[in-house]
Design a protein that fits this description.
By secondary structure, the protein is an alpha+beta fold. It is 28% helix and 25% strand. It has a single domain, classed as Gcn5-related N-acetyltransferase (GNAT) (Aminopeptidase, 3-Layer(aba) Sandwich), CATH 3.40.630.30. It contains five helices and seven strands; from the N terminus they run βααββαβαβαββ.
Length: 182
Amino acid sequence: MTRRTTFPRVPPQPRALNIRLATAEDAGPISTLLIANSAANGGTLYGDWSEAMISKWLATGTPIVVAQNSGGIKGVLFSAENAADAAPPVQAMFALALKKVIAPYAYGPICVDTSLRGQGVPAKLYKLLKREMGTRRGILFINRNNPGSLRAHAKLGMPIVGKFHLGDQTFDVLATPAKRSR
């Protein structure tokens, strides 16, 4: 009889993440990540996530931060300067936030691959975006039907500064923390 030796199963180690600003070459991989997490595929992201649209966003020059490992782009955090060409929820968010936050930028959307959720990736993406934006405050909206995102952003210290309704949906408007004066 042969005796079989068993070894304890070692959980896979997370692949090292490189947090960096996105480049034009990232448009396709970002699009793939966002489409996989779109409402059409059971996720919470709504919008046009085509490679052409991502390329257009990248061309604006506002910071877009990605998390990449050897498996590719696994997270993305967008920013935008204004709501001129934005979807109705973004326009509503800016209208509300401009009363409370001076010269805000739009924070988001943010998307993290399911394989890396719960590992602090939003905080890592936000850290680089915050460095890029300096003392400016970001504003974002989250559908109340997305408690995971609300919790993740609460952990980042982002208070709710208002809310708005579109149709039968309610959205909370949050702001990145104000820079503390010394």
